[in-house]
Model the fold of this input.
Amino acid sequence: MLISITADVGMVAVIPTDFREAHINQHIALARPSHRMNTDYLAWYLVSEPGNKQLTGRQYGATKPGLNLDDIRTVDVPVPPLEEQHTIVEEIERRLSVVDKLEATIDANLKQAAGLRQSILKQAFSGELVPQDLEDEPASVLLERIKEERQATKPKARKGRRVKTGPTKRSHAEQEGLF
Done:
């Protein structure tokens, strides 16, 4: 098992027993649980709240938090019989697979809901959502009438002397008197 001992302290990865030779660096601890410990059980414990709390509670350093190998060795792990450890791991993985299926169902339902929303909006804006009354005026006529009513009630601009507020840049055409 590999355990991150710097930066993201407490991240855990279980390496298969048939994994070929590899190199790790000073930021990773290699842990080899005893024959009395199921590696998956230990990994699940270390990422659980009580296990992770122990790891993060042993961190040192303010700017670059870290652990040393002795910190890892001193983590208190409840060790039930090996058969019970296997049962616990199987139950955790079973429940997580149920969660994965629920997440997939939720994602599919969200996509379907987005599609339905678009379909409803399309129907609404094309006039297919509710029965249409042929006696109603078209929207373009209504909008034109509203525009005219606003123009009619708009206050007239006062005519008066225009005060120049400062120098303006004149174009070549204006300088030549073309405008």
